[in-house]
TrEMBL record:
It comes from Hallella faecis. This is DUF2795 domain-containing protein. InterPro entries: DUF2795 (IPR021527). It holds the Pfam family DUF2795. It comes from the Bacteria.
Length: 73
């Protein structure tokens, strides 16, 4: 399983919180690339509910990771 920023961004608008099956359904309906579906299917399913993409890919960059100061602009 590998994630890239582009692949993970396909799940930004997913209906969080969601289960693995709900995420797979969303990815299928939204036309996400096959790699996203493969990554989601590789998640070990223990009935967990995921609150955000960070629960699936902990290294997903957030706004705090960028050196952009919105107050300056």
């Amino acid at each position: 399983m590998y994630w890239t920023l582009d692949l993970a961004s396909k799940l930004e608008d997913a209906p969080w919180p969601a289960t693995k099956e709900e995420l797979i359904d969303y990815a299928t309906r939204s036309g996400a690339p096959a790699e996203v579906l493969e990554n989601l299917q590789e998640i070990e399913d223990e009935g967990d509910v995921y609150e955000s993409i960070e629960d699936i890919w902990p290294d997903y960059p957030t706004k705090d990771d960028f050196l952009w100061n919105e107050d300056e602009y």
